[in-house]
């Protein structure tokens, strides 16, 4: 395990309704019995409105999640990806998931990123250009995605 002793998981805090500097309850676009999805507080230049899907149970990484819960997370990621196509009129979507420091995991709670994509957006080449986004900027994307999830 890589999570430090006494780790205050920001995703678990969000699930408990506790807002942090980066995660707000209004960012949540889907909450089911086993999974939750929310608009990410970190965006890449050509991919605004990216989302994060998490299990509601605290599991550190891919190695520790059981297969049934893993399936539930990816079913929610699919639902979010389909909703993004409706909400944002994006040309496609990508998912990404990281494990351990060597895999660039930086929150010790299993999560899957879902990105809206367009041809030539160079998502993976623009890592250095990512930025933290204010809740006010995320709000419109969260509202659109939340509404689209009602139609998926």
What would you say this structure looks like, in words?
This protein has about 150 residues and is an alpha+beta fold. The chain has helices spanning about 10-15, 65-90, 135-150, and strands at about 30, 35-40, 40-45, 50-55, 90-95, 110-115, 130. Helix 2 (about 65-90) packs across helix 3. The protein starts with 9 loop residues before the first helix and ends with a helix.
Secondary-structure-derived class: alpha+beta
Shape: globular
Residue windows where pLDDT falls under 50 for at least 5 positions: none
* Portion in strands: 15-25%
Radius of gyration: 15 Å
Number of strands: 7
- Number of helices, where a helix is a run of at least 4 consecutive DSSP H or I residues: 3
Write the layout of secondary structure elements.
Blueprint lengths: L9 H6 L12 E4 L3 E5 L2 E2 L7 E5 L11 H22 L3 E5 L15 E6 L13 E2 L2 H15 L3
Antiparallel strand pairs: 1-2, 2-4, 3-7, 4-6, 5-6
Helix pairs in contact: 2-3
List keywords for this structure.
two-stranded antiparallel sheet, 152 residues, five-stranded antiparallel beta sheet, 3 helices, 19% strand
Short synopsis of the structure:
This protein is α+β, with helices and mostly antiparallel strands. It is built from three helices and seven strands. α2 (67-88) packs across α3.
